[in-house]
Structures are given as C-alpha cells and as structure tokens.
C-alpha cells in the first residue's frame, strides 16, 4: 500500500516547549537524512517571516551538524532544483499559503515524482499536513485561497499536527480539536492521525512507524477514536 | 460607509460557559428582531448535527418567547423563502461548509439583497464570520472546499469569533490566535475584529456598536493590536 521507495519524516512540530528549533528531534533527523545537503522549502512562512529569515533559522539549527541548507526561494529553476535535491524539508507555517505557493509555482507534481523515486522528504507541521491526502485537517487560518485542498498524498490518510487533547477545565466554547475532526468525517472518509507535539512518523520500506514518547490519536468516520502506541502502524488503521 | 438599512446582530458565540443555547443573549435578540418570525439557516451543522436537529435546538430556545422558527432546509424554493423572510439567523458550525452550501444553492446574492433592504440578519460564530469581507479569519477546519472565500461583506472588515487570548501558561507550540491573525495580515489589508465569547456587534442606522461586557481586540496590518471598549465603533477602526 505504501510505496516502498518512500522515505518520509512527518513531524508534528518543529519545536517543543523549552527547547530550540528542531533540537528535540535532531538525532532522528541526522539519522534519517543520510546526506549532508538539504533543500528547504520555506513557503509556509510561520508568523509571516521572510523566506530568507526562515531559511537562516534552519541553517542555524542544522549547519553546526554538517548539514548544508539551501532555500528553494533562491533558485532560478525550482523544478530542476527539486529534481536534483538530495533531500527535501518543507517547514511549518500556514498550510493554505504553502499549498497555494506550491501549486502556483508548479511544484506539486515534481515533488511527488522525486519522493516516489526515493528522495527523502521531511515535513514539519504544515509540511506534514501536505504528506496526507488533503489539507482538510489543518489547524491554520485560510489566509489565502489555494486552487484545491489536495495535498501531496504520500500517505493514505490525513495528518492533524499539533494534536491537542480537549482541556477539561476550559470554559471556552469554541470547538475542540476532536469535534473539528468529527465534523471533517461527516464529509470525508479517510482516517486522520492526530500527532501530538513531540511525535512523528517515519516512513521507510513500506512501513509507517510512530516515533517519539507519546501515543497518537486515530480518528475514523463512525467509530470512536483510538490511541495508538509508538511502533509500526498496522494497516488496519488506515485501510 | 455602513448601509443605514443594515440591521445586523453579529454574535461571537451562541453559548457561553454554564448557560443554555442563546440564553445569555436572549433579551438582546428579542429586542433586535422586532418580529415573531425567524428564518433559520442551519447549514453550518455544528458537530455535524442534522439540519432538523439544529433547527429544533433553536425552536426550543426561542419558541417559548413567541418567536416562531422555520428551517430554510425544508423550503422548496429557498430564494423565495429568503425574499419573504421577516428576519434571518445563520447559526454557527463549520464556516467552510456553510459558505459552500450558500454558494451551491445560489443564496449568497439574495441574502445580500434582502439585508441591504433592511431584513434583520443575525449571525452567530460561523454566521458572524459571513458578515465580514472573507472567511479568511475563521477558526474552523477546511472540511470542504468552497468556490471562494468571499463572504456576505456587510461589514468592511473581518470577524474572528470566539476570540481567545494567548494562554501564557500553555506549553503548546501551535500558533496563538493573535499569531494567526498576524499571518492573515501579511496577505490581506482589512481590519479584523476579534470578538470574545459574550460579545456581539449590533449594527443599525449606519452605526456599529460593540455590546456585551467585554472589550474586543482589533487587528490592523502593520500596527499593534488595540483593545476596543463597548460602544459605537469609531470609523477609524476599520476605514
């Protein structure tokens, strides 16, 4: 079911509380990449920071560990740059902006193509939303209008990054995350994996493995959500 | 600037903590409506409940106070039903679903038409998002793909309902509401009014009045957000 060429690292959040950018997951990243060159796609612009600024943040986090980082925004031929990339990282920020930019620049197909052939793909937050079927379970505001909600569709389900359990003490009446995902399932059939901060999926050899110290929450239409322990995901979760 | 025919009640939330559906704002609603017939548009389906169920909730809340409620979903000719309505209420739920349904049924123009002529319009949560320029500052998940993000555009700004202050004690690294609105302003120029739960806008005689006991938070691109006390909004806030 999962293309055995896929090598994916699908990260809930780039940063956990009290720790620097990608610090908590650095060992996993270095182990995963198996290259010293990383192509960064900074289009999601968290807090609206510039592509340059965002790329600099990543350089600061990874270059001391001998990973050289280049930002796709500086390329004159982004399609060719993606074709030649040793590994790709799409960082977090606004998922609508990210998806719209990829479609506008005509990059969706080439990313799918190289990842299907084995280029390692790392995504965090918005970049992880894109690994699923659609961006229909993003937490972001629709600040721009993308041409569709279809994502890169590496995984046969949707991701909800930064998954947050209901706060039982809250007096706020806005919908909980779980209520929102239940609303999604009135109109969509795919499973949704709620990845808590500090969790990630590593996909290799046709297997999807949940890593990090936390369980994930799996939502399917018409059945109660289930907690999933770390380890290789049984196909029954998403088929 | 504001059409003097507009009669709008733009409510942040239908329900506040510890109180029944619309209970906290019932007196205001009765005073605002000035009619005993209310047309309910239940298309936002909160938690995915059916149109019938949702309409029943509203009947239960308002019929004891001599407001007769009918659900638009039961009409064979919704355009004509809207033309004849004494007052319209669009309830909360999922904003994407609501907007998509209105466009699909061809109801956006007729609602704009009757409200411009003076039909009272009441919106709560998703129904309040629609009174602004776009749904770009909704909190909801994009569970369906609407044909555009343009809303009913009664007000020359956007609404963020259920506005929530950052939780200074939180260890969660997902974006705060304020961060999300700042991201919106990298790509959009209109002011955004964050309406806290328990607040609402009443629009009449060309004035927009903030009501309820709380202040609202106004966001404009490039300047610090401002707290706004209850009372008539100065035009400088949104022009």
From TrEMBL, chains A, B:
Alphabetical GO CC annotations of the entry are: cytoplasm
Q: Pfam families from the xrefs?
A: Peptidase_S51 (PF03575)
Keyword Cytoplasm on entry: yes
Q: Name one GO biological process term.
A: proteolysis
Q: What class of enzyme is it?
A: hydrolase
CDD domains registered for this protein in UniProt: GAT1_Peptidase_E
Catalysed reactions listed for this entry: Dipeptidase E catalyzes the hydrolysis of dipeptides Asp-|-Xaa. It does not act on peptides with N-terminal Glu, Asn or Gln, nor does it cleave isoaspartyl peptides
Q: Which UniProt keywords apply?
A: Cytoplasm, Dipeptidase, Hydrolase, Protease, Serine protease
Q: Which GO terms describe its molecular function?
A: dipeptidase activity; serine-type peptidase activity
Which Enzyme Commission numbers does its entry carry?
3.4.13.21
Q: Where in the cell is it found?
A: Cytoplasm
The question of whether Protease is a record keyword is answered with yes
> Which NCBIfam families does the UniProt entry name for this protein?
PRK05282.1
Q: Which family does it belong to?
A: Belongs to the peptidase S51 family.
Any idea what this protein is called?
Answer: dipeptidase E
